Amino acid sequence: MVLAELGGKISAALQKMNNVTVIDQKALQECINEINRALLQSDVSFKLVQSLATNIKKTVDPSDLAAGHNKRKIMQQAVFNELCGLLDPGKPSYTLKKGKQCVVMFVGLQGSGKTTTCTKYAHYHRKKGFKPSLVCADTFRAGAFDQLKQNATKANIPFYGSYTETDPVVIAQLGVEKFKKEGSDLIIVDTSGRHKQEASLFEEMRQVSEVTKPDLIIFVMDSSIGQAAFDQAQAFKQSVPVGAVIITKMDGHAKGGGALSAVAATKSPVIYLGTGEHMDEFEPFDVKPFVSRLLG
Ligand code: GDP
């Protein structure tokens, strides 16, 4: 994972602080510049990098550093706090409760890993004792229903979809009604993606959301999309009330910084990471341990 490289570069910048004999504004600025470069190379959006740098300068007092304290520690703490602040929108995501029926709608671009992630999410919660079900309201991508059906069957999770109905809104409504009657407490609705953000996708999302009244809308994002992540996440958030983010393909060559930027755009917490194509390659995301790991 290329994020590890980012961590390595930030650690190297911090380490240099320890080797500088005179810590003044200039040395501090150099260290911040180096951290900025590492973040930009990892596709963190320019705006965020700028605000991160400004905040570090505000919180770190060069005279503290000059006083002979552990400079690397002081800087590391400041960077840690800023990165955590970036990733933590300050409000938790919707909490699912066993036995309380809820609808979770998945949105995202085509190829982001939405369908795969729906099954992973269902499988993960079934292991925790929920009774999940899957509704395939993706009528745009040929084969989406077959894919969901295959995954759901493998995981032994009830599913609903149609080969003949072309209106995703109708499928979503029928599917949610069916599973409500059957007593599923976690009804997951997979919606259509598109190759790019477009008005028709957003209109469809709004309509599906209107009929299914989701308790939570999860935005699924491919970690490799880089700088485009910020605008993409913002566009989704402006169309429907995104409540949480799942970042996929963290096992690949993604730089990951784009994903960090997206979280800031949506002000929604990242709740899981997709780390492979298989059902179990899925892990909960917690800000502090993640940033700690990143900074080594
Ligand atoms: P959708 O169009 O958004 O529904 O995307 P799919 O669920 O069909 O996923 C697109 C491709 O990405 C498929 O080949 C998946 O196996 C793959 N994929 C999904 N999540 C991950 C992940 O976390 N890691 C990796 N390596 N591949 C993934």
Q: What features would you describe in this structure?
A:
One of its GO terms (molecular function) is GTPase activity. Component of a signal recognition particle (SRP) complex that consists of a 7SL RNA molecule of 300 nucleotides and six protein subunits: SRP72, SRP68, SRP54, SRP19, SRP14 and SRP9. This is Signal recognition particle 54 kDa protein. Its main location: cytoplasm. The protein is of the alpha/beta class. 52% of the residues lie in helices and 14% in strands. It has 12 helices and 8 strands. It has helices at residues 3-19, 25-41, 46-59, 62-66, 71-87, 114-127, 144-155, 168-181, 199-212, 228-239, 257-266, 287-295, and strands spanning 102-107, 132-137, 159-160, 186-191, 216-222, 244-248, 270-274, 282-284. Strands 3-2-4-1-5-6-7-8 form an 8-stranded mixed β-sheet, sandwiched between helices. The two termini are 14 Å apart. The relative contact order is 0.16. The structure holds guanosine-5'-diphosphate. Guanosine-5'-diphosphate binds next to helix 6.
How much helicity do the residues have?
40-55%
Q: Which stretches of 5+ consecutive residues score pLDDT under 50?
A: none
Multimerization status: single chain
Largest sheet: 8 strands, mixed
Largest sheet strand order: 3-2-4-1-5-6-7-8
Bound ions, cofactors and other small molecules, one mention each: guanosine-5'-diphosphate
How many runs of DSSP E, i.e. beta strands?
8
Task: Note the run of SSEs as H and E.
Answer: HHHHHEHEHEHEHEHEHEEH
Shape category: elongated
Supply the helix-strand structural class.
alpha/beta
Average pLDDT taken over every residue: 87
How many helical stretches?
Answer: 12
Radius of gyration: 21 Å
| Percent of residues in β-strands | 5-15%
End-to-end separation in angstroms reads 14 Å
